[in-house]
Amino acid sequence: MAGPRILIVDDEIHLRTLVRPYLEADGYEVVEAANGPAGLAAIERGDIDLAIVDVMLPGFDGIELVKRVRETNDLPIILLTARREEGDRIAGLRLGADDYVTKPFSVPELVARVGAHLRRKMATSDEVEEPLVSGDVQIMVAARVVRVRGREVELTRREFDLLLALVRRPNRVISRTELLNAAWPSTYFVEKTVDVHLAGLRKKLGDALNVSAVRGVGYRLESS
Fold first, then answer.
1. CA 44, 50, 55: angle at the middle one, nearest 5?
2. How far apart, in Å, do the first and last CA atoms of the chain sit?
3. Taking the model in full, what pTM does it have?
4. Where are the domains of the chain?
5. CATH 1.10.10.10 for domain 131-221
6. d(CA 78, CA 110)
7. pLDDT tens per residue across span 58-91
8. What's the angle, vertex CA 91, arms to CA 158 and CA 159, rounded to 5?
9. Separation between Cα atoms, residue 30 and residue 17, nearest integer Å
10. Exposure string over 48-86, b if 16+ CB within 10 A, otherwise e
């Protein structure tokens, strides 16, 4: 049986040639694209399980690719960025990228992150459908659907995971480290990543989400 299909979107052929054999050695099928439009077309065909996307791409860049993919698709996306591209990393995460790796990077570490994201995706898809309710917010866990007062609200993958972590532990302070572990399979991210995604979550859910910051610790969901 064929393994999961991994898409590498990078205009540097030597990088694709470097990464490909490591992925294939772990049992993955590898698809390659050299620019943004080709990468988007490969994803739109519907048989890609995870995408590794360079930020600097011809056609349109990796940030735009993440934006377009997230309009219709929730597959895991790992960004490849230069060390000084912090603004791009934050923009990509806000738009729904799941992870980032800075160049130069360890290929075995990248492959390990691919496996972690795919395992997380599989575990999520196996969940039994069960509604969780917190005030005016209703969460359909397996379907990954959130409704506020009956209206469906579209969240990114990470926003959904953060919300779920908060709702499952109401009226308790949850540290930023715990939230990182709940929403990302890797602890590589700095803690401000949580702040960025929670700001987006609060904006989308408005007063239906009563989350307060506990200075120097983390966040608490107030639930009556």
1. 85
2. 50
3. 0.60
4. 5-125, 131-221
5. yes
6. 9
7. 999 999 999 999 888 889 999 998 867 778 778 8
8. 15
9. 11
10. bbbbbbbbbbebebbbbbbbbbbeeeebbbbbbbeeebe
